[in-house]
Amino acid sequence: MHYTFQHYQESAEYIRRRIGAFQPKVAMILGSGLGFLGDQVENAAAVPYGDIPHFKASTAPGHKGRLVFGTLEGQPVAVMQGRMHHYEGYSYEEVSYAVRVLRLLGCDTLIVTNAAGCVNTAWKAGDLMLITDQIKLFMESPLRGENLPEFGVRFPDASKLYTPALRETARSAAGDLGIELKEGVYMYFPGPQYETPAEVRFARIAGADAVGMSTAPEVITAGHCGMRVLGFTLLSNMAAGILDQPLSEQEVLDAAAACKDKFSRLVLECLKRM
Known about the structure:
By secondary structure, this protein is α/β, with parallel strands linked by helices. It is 30% helix and 24% strand.
């Protein structure tokens, strides 16, 4: 379906009734195995996706499927514990629906995280990557269809989707924490099958450092409605064809668990400095 501005308003109004006068400033979309940050929110109010008008359910493993409102490092946040994916059967408009709702609630910044396959052969599984840019070649845009001018222009600029000032904040935070932070390009593939070795070679030739099945649609939507964006990738495994072994969902979740402390310290420090 194509959403109207009224759909977004109805979702936002329902959430306002649940959270009262609280106004979030930073939206956080946490990917596979990384939703634990939502459990650290202080004075938390949780709203399941299924309760919100027009919201879709998150069915991917490791995704709780709820919005958590409260404070983290003194910042008023809205944390998405789990996201929607195109491979679950949702349109790109449905995948990125929550971003616009959170914008209406007052969020002007988006922190997005994911777990992805590492394409850069100089790096290793378990590394953290600051996303500097993205590639999304496949299928339609989340902005396809009638433009909603209440959010942004028909043809939005995408030259700085990942905000340079926030990237500098992340570099500084990582340096002070002694956390090695790679920097690179995230390439979107629709999934749910993992990429083939040939697709991974193509991604590398195209300039990608990581490949994954999320993030790009939400970031396009955030850019359209004027939000600042900071993105991190957990390189949970080497992408297909680099090592002679099959890829598995458990590998992704295990890697996320192993990097839990390092990842949370970095994101929380970035929040503190915003």
